[in-house]
Amino acid sequence: xxxxxxxxxxxxASRFPGKLMKDLGGxxxxxxxxxxxxxxxxxxxxxxxxxSDVIFKTIEHVGGKAIMSIKEHECxxxxxxxxxxNIDADxxxxxxxxxxxxxxxxxxxxxxxxxxxxxxxVDLASLKVQITDKEDxxxxxxxxxxxxxxxxxxxxxxxxxxFHRDQNIDxxxxxxxxxxxxxxxxxxxxxxxxxxxxxxxEKIEAIRYQEIGKKIKMVETDxxxxxxxxxxxxEKAIKYLNN
Length: 243
Known about the structure:
Layout: E1 3-9, E2 23-24, E3 27-28, H1 29-39, E4 45-50, H2 53-61, E5 66-68, H3 76-84, E6 91-94, H4 104-116, E7 124-131, H5 134-138, E8 144-147, E9 153-157, E10 173-183, H6 184-191, H7 197-202, H8 205-211, E11 216-220, H9 231-242
Parallel strand pairs: 1-4, 1-6, 4-5, 7-11
Antiparallel strand pairs: 2-3, 6-10, 7-10, 8-9
Helix pairs in contact: 3-6
C-alpha cells in the first residue's frame, strides 16, 4: 500500500487568525507539523494542502511538497480530496496542521487498521478518546461517538450519546478526535457527494461518510494532542517544546 499524509492548512482561523504561521521555537507552526510528519517515517509522501500563498511558499522554500487549493472548502476532507484526486495513493492520512507534536503511536494504529483489513471492509479509520468529566460530555463542541462491538462507528453527535437513562448501567463516553485515515476512493466519493441532511444538522463531516454507506473503524487512544487553537495554546506549545 502507498500511504501518504495530507496536512490541510487554512491561513484564516476564527479564534486565532494566522496561527499556522506563528513562531514556535524558531519555525512556523505549520513547518514544524510538516517536518514532524516527514520525520515520523510513517508515510511514503507528505503534502501540505493550503489556500495561502504564505504557507505554500514557506513549505516550498524548504523543499517540501505543497499544493494550492483551487476551490473554497467547508471541511478538511473536501480540501484533501481535491488535492489527492490525481495523486497515486491507496491510504490517505489527514494530519492536523495545528498539532505540531504529532502522535506517532496513534497514527501507526490507524495505518495498522488497513494493513489488517485484508477484505477491504473498512473505508475510514479515526480516533476516539474516553471522556469522564460531565462538562466535557455535555459540551456540544466535543463530538461524541458510539460504536458497535467491533469498534465500527454507529453515530457521531454533538449531543450526549448514549443517553444515560438507567443510572445503574455503567456507560462510557468517547470524544471523536478529527484525525482520519481514508481509503482514497472513500475520500473521492465523499468529495463528489453534496452535504447530507444529518451532516448539515450536526455540522460533523464524519456523518456524510456514514450517510453514503462508508464504514468507519474507531481506534481508542489515551493521547491528548497539543493542538493550537488560541494564543494561550501557543504559549503552552512553546513550553512543551522547551521541555
